[in-house]
Amino acid sequence: MARGQGDKVKEGVTPCHFAALPLALYNSPMHIGIDARMLFYRMGGISQAVLHLLPALAALDGENRYTIFHSRQDGRSYLPSSPNFQRADLWTPCHHRLEPWSLSTELLPHRLDVLHSPDFIPPLWGGRRKIITVHDLNFIFYPEFLTRESLRYYAGGIQSAVRRADGIAVDSEATRQDMIERLGAPPEKVRTVLLAVNPIYEKAYGETAVTATLQKYNLPRGFILFVGTLEPRKNIPTLIRAYDLLRQETAVDVPLILVGGKGWIYDDVFATIDELGLRGHVRHLSGVFDEELAHLYHGAGVLVTPSFYEGFGLPALEAMYCGCPAVVSRRGSLPEIVGPEGLMVDDPKDTDAWADILRRVLTDDELRAGAIANGRIQAKTFTWEKTARQMLKLYRET
After folding, report:
1. 199-379: same fold as 2-196+383-397?
2. Which residues contact 93 (CB under 8 A, 6 or more apart)?
3. Residues 81, 70: contact at Cβ < 8 Å?
């Protein structure tokens, strides 16, 4: 699938509210529903998480029955090849103003024991017990970074969602603490369920494959790489200014490559490039498929994530798997992703600090080798098997 588009998944990819009863009273397998409609609308981080969670659950759990809800418009299937998984189609679109009511009506006939809503907001009813995943609280910390529509959907419904949910999964301990402190969520209701990466980034790639992708995009080895949607919270203009400073004050002369789709309020990114006269040095790539992105990680000199806030931060983890040093801001979940030995900048707005750490990673061979070694060790602590075990535990114990 492509990174940087609101793409559909490529063909052939398979990867009234009732009070909850104590788990001991359930003697038969549970019927668990998982809302996978988001995969039809946008292949972002949430969709990636659902896509890889499903086969991990199938490998782990052959007892419970799963219904995976697809958009009726989606001709692809995300079902694992497991007999206890079935598909059901829904008419209701994601994030529609009538979603809480119409989705509830569609779900009722399925008589679910557990309904997992991976995109924050659950329906009003439709499952005996409701689990939601809250990926971040960006809409609380930085409401100015969202469109009015997104802010209305997330900020407008999150308090009600937290009250109605029987269990809440979050992608990091940082987000768990935010949920408790900012939204008053009961600590016992919120569980940290760490994510992992697409297995494609765990593979070893030969020099021939990496070189072919670099030639396709006309890139030298050792470039500076950013991966993510172009949106305000990613702090890309600061990265561009740091890159300009790096070029002015050092002998480093490699391009800065921005890989990701245009999200919202992204005009500042291109305005900054033009302001600094960097059109020939900063390039934007979209529609990059996962295997190509893995090649880019292998060919890059460093991956930079200067975000003001991240609920998880998949690019840093992907990069570490591929042997690419990751430099991140010390915000949100990112310190958890790179670990205590990771390379971090305390203040995301500190242009000098970003320029300095980029210079060190690109020119200090000992620092670079240590970052690569530490990153590989850290990356291997995140697995989809572990994610599935934690999520299944939440399904069972809520």
Report:
1. yes
2. 37, 41, 71, 99
3. no
158-161 long-range contacts (CB < 8 A, ≥24 apart) are 158/120, 158/121, 158/134, 158/183, 159/183, 161/120, 161/121, 161/122, 161/132, 161/134
Strands in 65-71's sheet, in edge-to-edge order, are 85-90, 65-71, 31-35, 112-117, 127-134, 167-170, 190-192
Compute the residue count for the chain.
Answer: 398
Nearest to residue 331, comparing CAs of 303, 306, 309? 309
Locus of tokens 């992708």: 213
**Alpha-carbon span 227 to 328, nearest angstrom:** 12
- Tokens 């007892």 belong to residue: 63
CATH no. of 199-379 = 3.40.50.2000
Q: Where are the domains of the chain?
A: 2-196+383-397, 199-379
Q: Under CATH, what is the fold of the domain 2-196+383-397?
A: Rossmann fold (3.40.50)
Tens of pLDDT along the chain (398 residues) come to: 566 544 433 333 334 333 344 443 445 899 999 999 988 877 777 888 999 999 999 999 999 999 999 999 999 999 999 999 999 998 877 754 555 667 888 888 999 999 999 987 777 777 899 999 998 887 777 777 767 777 676 666 788 888 889 999 999 999 999 999 999 999 999 999 999 999 999 999 999 999 999 999 999 999 999 999 999 999 999 999 999 999 999 999 999 999 998 888 899 999 999 999 999 999 999 989 999 999 999 999 999 999 999 988 899 999 999 999 999 999 999 999 999 999 999 999 999 999 999 999 999 999 999 999 999 999 999 999 999 999 999 999 98
Give the separation between CA 388 and CA 238, rounded to whole angstroms: 37
